[in-house]
Every structure is written in structure tokens, then in C-alpha cells.
Design goal:
393 residues; mainly alpha; 18 helices; 2 strands; 74% helix
């Protein structure tokens, strides 16, 4: 990473614009996904009256967006969380300070921001990040080789591998399942017919339990930990600098080579094995790895577009203010979506095509607001509060 000398003689990392581009891209993709999901409120109007072309368009948008961005946008977001930790930690190391205890306090603050977001939206990820983020504190002083091994261990979903081995050896083995159905049922009831206060009450308890249970059952928790570590390693090695594009070219080639056989295995394995206690962890493992491959294709492609193509670089640079205000944008998306689709708000009944148009509109309004805000400021509103509160004690 590039080091700047500040006016008081202290050294610190220069802000990495391409990281803000990636962050802005991820949050943009997230708003589109959340919009067609109606922010975890899967209530859609009857579409039987629609012409065939519109039903086709609805399905194409749903399948296309989830193929392109489902789990990939969150993967980029997680990678950048680890990267940001490295920048903050290394800045303090250059000043002779240890940032680890301060970062624990910062994670607690993030947990509070997550609670604010969770009041409106059950699918938020800030609480998960606040809990998993302690892995960075525990591992940040380890060698690069050790961190690669630990990160790969998490990415490879060891619990799923253990369950697959047990199910293969013992036909009577049953995987442990979390009964999260009642929690999701409570949140859906509040979204469908609850008042604002009733929704908040349910979201802060049943909604949080349902969200964390989903993250555990679908391998998101371990994958997030692994991506945090690899994001920290990207910062340590300087891989977001232009001179590392050849390495990203190798990453892109390997991601493509791994993706296609994994995708084929994922689609055909069910034809040969019917044991759900094997297939459930198998599907989680393989889908998480294929999503990881597609996420790496996105990151590699965006880095090449930003550094190698002037026209695309100028276009992608428009996302920089949006990426710098990623927390503000992410939290306000949940508030806006809840107000649009839930019973306490407008309770809109929109099809997929209409919903994605609303998502695009929300993004454009947020993007315009970010450009205006960042002309005179260095941080978004929530980013500013988070920074000030981090150093308040």
C-alpha cells in the first residue's frame, strides 16, 4: 500500500480508491437483490394476469441477479472488511500503537449499528460482522503462511466436510438442524400485519436469531471469517495496487477453471446420491465455493477495468463516493425498503420487474446524495459517528 506523510510527521496509508469502487459496486448489487426480495419479505402479488413476456422478464431478472450477485456482493463486502481492518491496524502500528483492543470496541459499536439496521431489516449483516470480526483481532499478528492456512480452513467449510464424511460412513447419521422456522414465521407475521413497534420488537429478537441461524446453516459464518482473513492478507501484501494485476490475472484464470467443474458436480450429484444428510452439507460446500469463484471473477475483472481501461476507469470512479459511504448506504437501504414493503409502511405489492426498478431508483438517489455529501466532507454520516465513537474512550 502507498504510504503518505501527514502534516504532523506521522505516516499512514493513502486511501485506496479501487477499494471504494469495489465497495460501492457491492452495495449497489446488494440493494438490487434486496429490492427484488422485498427486503426479506417474500410477499408478491398474483402475476397470473400478466402477459407472458412480463412473467419471463420477472424470472430472468430474479435468476440473473442472483446468479450475478447472490452471495458474491456480500463476499466482496467481507473481503473489504478485512482489508479495512489491516489499513487501520497498520496505520496505528506505524504510530507505535496497538489497535487490537480499540478494534474490539469498534466491533461493539458495529454491533450497535447492526441493531439499528435490524430494527427495520432482518437480513442485515452488520451484527454477523461484529461477531465474526474478532477473528481478525486473534489472527492479525500471525505469519502470512499461517493466515493462508487458517483462511483456507474456513473457506473449505470444515463442518460440512465432517458431516459428509459421517453421512458417508454411517447411514443412520443425521446432521444437526436448527429449528429456525418459528423465528421466520414470527418475522413474516410482523412484516405482514404488525405495527412499526411490533415489527421492531420481533426483528430485534426472533429476526436476529433467524438471521444468525441462516448464516450458520448456509456456511456464511465460516466463509465470512475466511474472507475477513484473506482481505487482511490483501492489505498486507498490497494486492490492490496496479502492479499486482498479473497476480489477479492468475486468480481470474484459476477461478474460471475451478468454477465450471464445481458447477457441473453441483448440478449432477443429486442424480446419484439421495441421502439428504450428505447432500445438504455437500450443496452448502460446493455452492459456497462456486460463489467464491464468481466473486473472484468480479474482483479481478473490476480491478482490470479500473486500472487498464481509461473509459471504464472513469465510469467506475463514479462509485467512489458511494463506496466511501457504504455503511450509511447499507443501513438506509434497509430503512427505505422496510418503509416501502412492510405493513407498517406503504406495503407495496410489486412484481419483480417493478421491484428492481425501485431498487435502481434507490441506488441513484443514494448515489446522488453521496456525491453531494462527499464534496465537502471526508466521511458519510454513520462513518463519521463510527470513527468519532471509536476514539471517544
Amino acid at each position: 500500500m502507498t504510504i503518505n506523510q501527514t502534516t504532523n510527521g506521522l505516516r499512514r496509508h493513502k486511501r485506496v480508491d479501487v477499494a471504494d469502487v469495489l465497495r460501492g459496486f457491492a452495495v449497489m448489487a446488494i440493494i438490487l437483490l434486496h429490492s427484488i426480495e422485498h427486503f426479506n419479505f417474500y410477499s408478491f402479488p398474483d402475476t397470473s394476469w400478466q402477459p407472458g413476456w412480463l412473467n419471463f422478464l420477472d424470472k430472468a431478472i430474479w435468476d440473473g441477479l442472483f446468479f450475478a450477485f447472490g452471495s458474491k456482493a456480500y463476499g466482496i463486502f467481507a473481503l473489504l472488511f478485512g482489508f479495512s481492518f489491516f489499513i487501520q491496524d497498520d496505520n496505528q502500528k506505524m504510530r507505535g500503537k496497538d489497535f487490537r483492543l480499540r478494534f474490539c470496541w469498534r466491533l461493539f459499536l458495529l454491533f450497535l449499528f447492526g441493531q439499528l439496521d435490524a430494527m427495520f431489516f432482518t437480513g442485515e449483516i452488520l451484527v454477523l460482522y461484529a461477531l465474526v470480526g474478532f477473528i481478525l483481532v486473534l489472527t492479525c499478528r500471525l505469519s502470512t503462511r499461517t493466515l493462508i492456512l487458517i483462511g483456507a480452513f474456513f473457506i473449505l467449510q470444515p463442518i460440512c466436510i465432517y458431516q459428509m464424511i459421517r453421512a458417508g460412513l454411517d447411514p443412520n447419521y443425521e446432521i444437526l438442524k436448527i429449528n429456525s422456522g418459528p423465528y421466520w414465521g414470527a418475522t413474516y407475521a410482523a412484516q405482514t400485519e404488525g405495527t412499526f413497534l411490533e415489527m421492531v420488537k420481533v426483528n430485534l429478537w426472533e429476526g436476529q436469531l433467524a438471521s444468525l441461524a441462516w448464516a450458520w446453516e448456509h456456511g456464511r459464518l465460516l466463509q465470512t471469517a475466511g474472507l475477513f482473513i484473506f482481505g487482511m492478507l490483501i492489505g498486507r501484501s498490497g494486492w490492490f495496487k496496479k502492479e499486482y494485476l498479473p497476480q489477479w490475472g492468475k486468480v481470474l484464470a484459476r477461478a474460471i477453471l475451478v468454477y465450471f467443474p464445481l458447477s457441473g458436480i453441483y448440478n449432477m450429484m443429486g442424480n446419484y446420491i439421495s441421502n439428504p444428510n450428505f447432500m445438504t452439507p455437500f450443496n452448502i460446500l460446493v455452492s459456497s465455493l462456486t460463489n467464491l469463484c464468481l466473486m473472484l471473477m468480479w474482483v479481478s475483472g473490476l480491478l482490470f477495468a479500473y486500472y487498464r481501461t481509461d473509459v471504464l476507469s472513469r465510469r467506475l470512479s463514479l462509485l467512489i463516493p458511494y463506496g466511501r459511504m457504504s455503511m450509511t448506504n447499507y443501513v438506509t437501504q434497509g430503512i427505505i425498503g422496510s418503509a416501502l414493503y412492510y405493513h407498517w409502511g406503504l406495503h407495496l405489492q410489486m412484481g419483480i420487474t417493478g421491484s428492481v426498478l425501485i431498487g435502481i431508483a434507490i441506488f441513484l438517489v443514494q448515489w446522488w446524495a453521496c456525491r453531494w455529501w462527499m464534496k465537502a466532507r471526508s466521511h458519510g454520516p454513520l462513518e463519521y459517528v463510527w470513527k468519532k465513537a471509536t476514539w471517544a474512550i
